Every structure is written in C-alpha cells, then in structure tokens.
C-alpha cells in the first residue's frame, strides 16, 4: 500500500471497489454487444464485412494476449510466434484433409500440439537471452518455412486447399465469429490468471532482473519454458481456425517475418506486461491498418503509414498507450484490469 492508502484505508477500499465495479460493467456490456452483434446479420443482412473485421480482431486479440505471456510478463521478445500460428493451421488442415475431422473440433488439439512443440523449442531456445534469443526466433521462422516448403504431404510451397464450410453465405461467418470470440476471451482470461498467480509474479521478476530472480529462488528456466509453451496454445488454435476460414494454407501466409513482427507490434502499441494493454493494442493496430489499406489500397503506402503511426505513438507513449496512461495515473478505471 502507498502512504495515502495506509492513512485512509476506507477510502482506498472504496476506490478499489469502484474500479472493480466499473471494470465489470464495462466488460459485461462489451460481452453483450459482441455476442449480440451477429443478430444484425440475421435480421437485416449486409454485415458480412463487419463480421469479418470483428472476427479478425478477436483472433489478433487472442494472439496479442498470448504473446504477452512470454514477451510482456517474462520480457523475452519473440519474433517467431507465427510458427505456432502455422503449426495450428497445418495440424488442423491435416486432420481435416486426411481424416475428416472438422477444424472446429481439431482446433483445441492443434493448440495442444503447438504447446507441446513449444515446450521442446523453449527448452532449446531459452538457453539464450536478449538479442541472441530474438535472432534465434527469426531463425526458427526461416527454418520452419523451409521445412514446410519441402513437405509434399501438405502441399509444399504450393500449399493445401480446404473446402468451404457448407452453410448459406449469409451465416457462413458466424461459427468463425463466435469461435474467434471464444479464443479472445480464453486468451485474455489465461493472461489475467497468470498475471495474478505466483507463476506470473515469477515471470515479472525474470523480466526485471533474471539473475536476481534466480538467486531469490525463482525456477527461471522452468518458468520461461512454461511461458513460451503456454503462449503458443491459443495462437495454435487461432491458426487452425484461420486456415479453415481462408480455405487455403501456404507457408508464406503464416511464416512471413512481417507476420511475426505484427504480433509484437500489436502488444507494444497498447503496452506489454498487463492484461488490457495487448487487447487494446490489437484492436487499435488492426483498425488502423484496415483504415490505411482502405485509404491507400494494397500498396506499400499502407505499410509506411502504419509504421509512421507506430513511431508517432511510441514517441508520445513510450510504454504503449495504456502503459503510459497508467504511469501518469490517467488510465480509465474500466481499462485497469490488473
């Protein structure tokens, strides 16, 4: 507690209760709105574009919240988490194409496969720190792309096609919408539970000073490997659903360096290391990128505009938008989820 909270404990408790109530009301209203939005498509039609944008945002919220576990809490910047995205996509595609198992059913299994591979990769890669770890994650992306490009069982560089979901065009996006929403909620909740746990406290200690954390008794190597593996679960599930939604998978879709960088930028934009910041960062990043694509078209100009926006934001908000607002005591109560 701060000195003010020690002097006025009743006032501090009232403030915390008010913050908790504001947060619950905000989250409740947001949940009702997101669950009810597809009803507009059923009632009036013409909402296909917005359903697409929202499910895409939900997917990226799940990705940003998951990446935040290793990149935000533990402080290990990974540019290779799109490998989990690809693992999930290809695992679900194999189950569907060769064994007839729907990706809606196979997605959790794809997430578990991504997590299991994450344990192995983490055990190897997390022997390194700092820039060396970042370079190793980039190398992981390149090696995975080479492997998939030459794996004929899944189509190699030509990729693999999946059939369209057998539903009327008016409602074909609804299963993906609700599944991606569930992933966003699940990843955010996992991030919330980890942050408030002893495990999360250990990860934040590692981020501050890994050597001191180890001396203090934190099992740093185990915690880092667990964080790396767990951060791949919902990303793998998202990849499973995204590949089915696109009806086509190829290594270049999942394993571009820009895709991995986007995972990082979304989180940094909002601010890493807390629960709400990656969520807001993903929403802002995807919304801004869509605006620039609509304005400049499918050219490099939209990438330049997005990059300039990120530079401008980080000049004025060095800890991310929410992170900086929180440092200055200006963060709205409804967005303080910690």
Quick recap of the structure?
This protein is mainly alpha-helical. Helix content is 75%, strand content 1%.
Give a structural overview.
This protein has 338 residues and is an all-alpha fold. Helices cover 75% and strands 1% of the residues. It contains 17 helices and 2 strands. Strands 1-2 form a two-stranded antiparallel ribbon. Helix 4 (48-73) crosses helix 15. The longest helix has 28 residues, at 9-36. The two termini are 15 Å apart. 41% of the residues are buried. Residues 1-8 have low confidence and may be disordered.
Find the structural class using helix and strand composition: mainly alpha
| Share in β-strands | under 5%
Strand neighbour order, sheet with most strands: 1-2
Stretches where pLDDT is under 50 for at least 5 consecutive residues are: 1-8
Order of helices and strands: HHHHHHHEHHHHHEHHHHH
Q: Give the helix level as a range of percent.
A: over 70%
Whole-number average pLDDT? 87
In whole angstroms, how far apart are the ends? 15 Å
Rg calc:
21 Å
Helical stretch tally:
17
What's the total count of β strands?
2
What's the quaternary structure here? single chain
Apparent shape: globular
Major sheet summary line: 2 strands, antiparallel
């Amino acid at each position: 507690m701060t000195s003010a909270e020690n002097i006025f404990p009743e006032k501090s408790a009232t403030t915390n209760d008010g913050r908790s109530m504001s947060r619950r009301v905000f989250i409740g209203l947001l949940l009702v709105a997101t669950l009810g939005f597809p009803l507009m498509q059923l009632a009036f039609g013409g909402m296909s574009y917005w359903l697409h944008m929202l499910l895409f945002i939900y997917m990226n919220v799940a990705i940003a919240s998951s990446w935040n576990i290793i990149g935000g809490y533990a402080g290990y910047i990974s540019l290779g988490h799109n490998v989990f995205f690809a693992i999930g996509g290809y695992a679900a595609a194999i189950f569907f194409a060769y064994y007839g198992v729907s990706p809606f059913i196979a997605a959790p299994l794809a997430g578990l496969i991504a997590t299991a591979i994450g344990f192995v990769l983490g055990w190897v890669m997390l022997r390194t720190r700092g820039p060396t770890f970042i370079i190793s994650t980039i190398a992981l992306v390149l090696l995975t792309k080479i492997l998939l490009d030459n794996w004929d069982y899944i189509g190699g560089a030509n990729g693999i096609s999946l059939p369209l979901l057998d539903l009327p065009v008016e409602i074909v996006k609804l299963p993906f919408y609700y599944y991606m929403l569930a992933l966003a909620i699940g990843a955010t909740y996992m991030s919330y539970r980890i942050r408030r746990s002893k495990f999360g406290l250990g990860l934040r200690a590692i981020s501050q000073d890994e050597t001191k954390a180890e001396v203090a008794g934190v099992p740093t190597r185990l915690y880092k490997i667990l964080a790396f593996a767990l951060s791949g679960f919902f990303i793998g599930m998202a990849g499973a659903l995204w590949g089915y939604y696109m009806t086509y998978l190829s290594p270049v879709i999942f394993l571009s360096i820009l895709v991995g960088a986007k995972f990082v930028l979304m989180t940094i934009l909002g601010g890493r290391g807390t629960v709400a910041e990656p969520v807001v960062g993903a929403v802002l990043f995807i919304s801004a990128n869509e605006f620039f694509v609509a304005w400049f078209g499918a050219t490099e100009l939209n990438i330049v505009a997005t990059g300039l926006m990120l530079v401008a934001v980080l000049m004025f908000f060095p800890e991310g938008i929410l992170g900086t607002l929180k440092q200055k005591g200006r963060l709205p109560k409804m967005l303080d989820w910690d």
